[in-house]
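Researcher: We're teaching a course module on how sequence relates to structure. For the next exercise, students receive a sequence and then see the predicted structure as tokens, so they can try to spot secondary structure elements on their own. Here is the exercise chain.
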Amino acid sequence: KLTEFYEITKVENLFYIGNPFISFTTLSKTVFLDELEDGQALVFNDETAYKIDDHLLSEDHHIVFSITGSQTGIGSSKNTFTYSILDGDDQDVSALYEIKTTEGTLTIKKRTIGIITGSGTWIYDGNPHSSDIISLNTDELKEGYRFCHEDPYVTITEPGTVYNTVAYWLEDSTGARVPEEEFSKYYSVNENFGELTVSGLIVIIQSASDSKDFDETPLTNPRVDILFAQLRDGDVIDDTILTAATGSNTGTATETTTKDNTIDMTKFKVTDGDGKDVTALYSPNVIFGKLTVYATDEEEKDEQDEDQPMLTVLTTAPSVIYLKINAY
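Model: And here is the predicted structure for the students to work with:
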């Protein structure tokens, strides 16, 4: 018999296997903070705020439904509700139904304005550089109000990076400037300020490579070569950098080892024709030579020789890659 395995319910002269289905849904609503009075709560509980699917409700039953959701201040919360399904004697018979509930969201938020300024990159040439590109998103601006800004005016001359900031303010429908406190209370400005970057003039320096068999003493070679220098007229690189390699490798008797021949960059100095230190105008790119100490075991030495790298990628300025082929 079917009744041994299923609960059968009669609704409006129709028979259903299992509990009849009823759903309750509250909808969502979002408002801007300046659309409410100070301290006023957002509620959404009129006849457009909910949906009830009760087509399987028994003709002997009725629903008591109430929306209780409320949001005060910036933020979000659920548009909560309560319900009961009662019979003719006002007894709760909700358990006789399969209930699905969906709660909407109540949101109070600030109006959002977006501002983007341009970026730029230059190599130092002694001239000021800037970007006057600016883009705004004022879709949420209150009707009649105007978002105002100065033109980008930030400039950069010396090597370094600065943000391309601009000043801005809000005017109301009468053209009066909105006080900063009120502006920040009701508006959120997403600032995406670009970056203005001046790179130093390029100098490429390389420390010497060297090698020897293991003899319990450190291998060093202080020589540094200047491979390329983008010097201004009258600027001179101090000779102290030419012997500033500081790498050291003692090695072991059983394993061939290779280490970078590092450079003491505090020795890098550039002066102009008047003897003024202008090192900050330059961006030295460094290539480390290799210091290799071979193991005294000949078989080990031969194996390590085969494994030595033939190509070295150098550290350089952005978007420029220099390659050096090792010569043997």
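Model: If you want an answer key for the exercise: The mean pLDDT is 88. Residues 298-307 form the longest helix (10 residues).
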